[in-house]
Amino acid sequence: MVAIDTIQSRPSLLWADSADFILPKQETHRDGGLTLVELLVVIAIIAIIGGVGLPLIAQSMDNAHVRYAAQKITDTLRWSRETAIADDANVQFSANQGCAWQVTLNGVAVPEESMTAAQFQADFGQRPQCAFTGGDPLSFNPTGLVSGAYSVQVGGAKTTWTIQVSPTGTIQLGAS
Known about the structure:
With 176 residues, the protein is α+β, with helices and mostly antiparallel strands. It has helices at 4-9, 36-86, 117-124; strands spanning 91-96, 100-105, 108-109, 129-134, 138-140, 150-155, 160-165, 171-175. The protein has a domain at 62-175: minor pseudopilin epsh domain (minor pseudopilin epsh fold, 3-Layer(bab) Sandwich). The strands form 2 sheets. The chain has a 4-stranded antiparallel β-sheet with strand order 3-2-1-5. Strands 4-6-7-8 form a 4-stranded antiparallel β-sheet, with helices on one face.
């Protein structure tokens, strides 16, 4: 036994000699894997990120379709003007119902530059809507000029792009 003055100086020790008073260390090592709580936390975090991220991804895809559709129309208008100048010809861009158009070179249809409503829907889906304003058909003469101003609005749920063709034949694409 320990002397009384030792016990008083260390009051936490009642049986300092006894080996069974000291508790053995517990093993904290575990083989790989996750506990149920850890797994539930990970699933909750993924659900929160998905709940916030999926609507943003859907909106982003919608905006991309609208932008790509507007760019396609802009490219076709630029091709029409460049071809009119290069071939010393008249090129017409005719808007059809919906977001469809036909391009003609000296009165002959150019299917590679034209777009049917079915093609447009296959390429861009249901979302983009088009509004063509100005003289229809839009005619580029051999000098690249057009008679009057022309514009196209391509819109989706949150984004609208405007394509403007000035009488000088300048074609501009911008968000509105």
